[in-house]
Amino acid sequence: MIRSIRALAKKGEIEMVPLDINQVVRDVSALVTRELVSHQVTLRSELASALPRVLGDRIQLQQVIINLVMNGIEAMDAVTDRPRELLIQSSTDDLGYVQLSVTDCGVGIAENDADRVLDPFFTTKSSGLGMGLSICRSIVEVHGGRISVVQKNGPGATFQFALPLHKEAIS
């Protein structure tokens, strides 16, 4: 199953084009509005202006962001003592990558699970298959990037992925 998904991500009909990751985030925000409202979650975006473009498949990158957003929403289902807020941030790093992070204020990830949450079939959800984050990792890697869990202070979890700049954006 994992091999076929990775093959799909590698050889499938993907359309690699120069993309504005902020526009991909805005598209995803519109797609998940209903879920945010039904789960009483506020979405806040802090998108860096004038980000260089990345080379990517819009649909696949939307899938990555949607998965991270939906995981964050689900992680906050049990939260009753604080506002349910999801934060999406974009930026560039010193290594020439565009970064995108999704932060929730949910239950968080146990320290001993942080290294395994991106592995196939590992899940902390009672009804989860453990495929979502693994597929996200495959998609990000096909795009020449990396995805990670960022340890944060306070409740919740942050997932971050970084994609290389589109070559024309560098010159």
From TrEMBL:
- Keyword Transferase present in the record's keywords: the answer is yes
Pfam families referenced in this protein's UniProt entry, alphabetically = HATPase_c (PF02518)
On the tree of life, the source organism's domain of life is: Bacteria
Alphabetized, the UniProt keywords read: Kinase, Transferase, Two-component regulatory system
Q: Which GO terms describe its molecular function?
A: kinase activity
> SUPFAM superfamilies, alphabetically?
ATPase domain of HSP90 chaperone/DNA topoisomerase II/histidine kinase (SSF55874)
Protein name per its UniProtKB record? histidine kinase
Q: What is its EC number?
A: 2.7.13.3
Q: What is the scientific name of the source organism?
A: Bradyrhizobium japonicum
Gene3D superfamilies with a match to the protein in the record? Histidine kinase-like ATPase, C-terminal domain
Q: Which residues form the Histidine kinase domain?
A: 1-167
Recorded catalytic reaction(s): these are: ATP + protein L-histidine = ADP + protein N-phospho-L-histidine
Carries keyword Kinase?
Answer: yes
